[in-house]
Amino acid sequence: MSPSSPFVTEDWSQFDPAAYLDEYYGDLGSENLALMRFLAEACRNIPSGGRLLDFGGGPAIYPLISAVTCADEIHFSDYLQANLDEVARWIGKAPGAFDWDPFIQTALELESGTACSAEEVHERASQIRQRVTRLLRCDASCAAPLQGATGEPYDIVMTNFCAESATADRVQWHVYMSNIVSVLKPGGWLVISALKGASRYSVGDASFPAVEIFEDDLVELLDEAGFSRKCLDVQSVAADRPTRDYQGLIFAAAQKTPARTD
Ligand SMILES: C[S@@+](CC[C@H](N)C(=O)[O-])C[C@H]1O[C@@H](n2cnc3c(N)ncnc32)[C@H](O)[C@@H]1O
Q: Is the CB of 32 inside a 6 Å radius of any atom of ligand 1?
């Protein structure tokens, strides 16, 4: 935690989207490279087609870059209207919107294994803008966590640094995760990233709560939540700078047990 972040707040109005983007997505260090590689691999390996939800996406569109390779339609959600507004600014090509082009270029190169052109980056950005059909408010503490959604479950749910980064309470983390996966179809795929060994995380001058979890905690939770161990891939990477309030990142792709047909 920086010296100017003396306490952890749960006042989410202090979450500054621009400061967050600068702090965590201002460069493509080893954490972000591992994250983008994981997302490219996960989207390659899960069955393609259908509707995808990004739950608690914050102001960040990076998961959608590879998501367009496995989903026909994307809904993007966050707890804060300010974050949805930031995403809407990128979709609307507003002046000063965050520049995701370096992340798009990296994702394309990870997907194909070859260098990509500026034109290809531009094409992928257009594809993402077309594929995102809804921006929704969400609240993982609610049994029906999506506001204004049709209620029809999704084929794929992505959720990155959301449930464990929205509370410091382990029981609450379980509740949040259970509500999030409730909007995933039986047989659907969950693609999740989480802070590993975190005590909190800073955003500008504020610090927000996090639950201290490790790979085994996530595996146990997914097991309890009805995900098949046979279709579970868990990876992790160490934090790439000593100033972080977490030890690293955990990534997992898991299939929800399909509905019984008998
Ligand atoms: C660390 S950010 C992660 C943002 C983004 N997914 C990413 O990968 O950078 C945590 C996010 O959790 C959201 N959040 C906070 N409370 C929440 C809640 N009760 N339900 C859902 N999301 C919440 C915040 O608005 C914020 O966007």
A: no
Question: Residue 5 has what pLDDT?
Answer: 44
pLDDT at residue 229 in the model: 77
The closest-lying atom of ligand 1 relative to the alpha carbon of residue 141 is 19
According to the model, what pLDDT value does residue 2 have? 44
**CB distance 86 to 63 below 8 Å:** no
Ligand 1 centroid – CA 162 distance (Å): 4
Q: CA 128, 140, 183, 24 torsion: positive or negative?
A: positive
Question: Does 160 sit in the ligand 1 pocket, CB within 6 Å?
Answer: yes
Rounded Cα–Cα distance for residues 154 and 78 (Å): 16
Residue for token pair 């085994």 = 216
Average pLDDT per consecutive 10 residues, the chain (262 residues; last block may be shorter):
63 96 96 97 94 98 98 98 98 97 98 97 98 98 91 95 97 98 96 96 95 96 90 91 94 90 66
Mutate to test the pocket of ligand 1, among 32, 142, 162 (most ligand atoms within 8 A of CB): 162
Q: How far is CA 204 from CA 29, 161, 197, in A?
A: 19, 17, 21
Q: Separation of 262 CA from ligand 1 center, angstroms?
A: 39
Q: For 22, how many CA atoms within 13 A lie in the half-sphere containing its CB? A: 10
Q: At the topology level of CATH, where does 12-256 sit?
A: Rossmann fold (3.40.50)
Write the CA distances from 85 to 60, 192, 235, integer angstroms.
Answer: 11, 23, 32
* 2 residue type, one letter: S
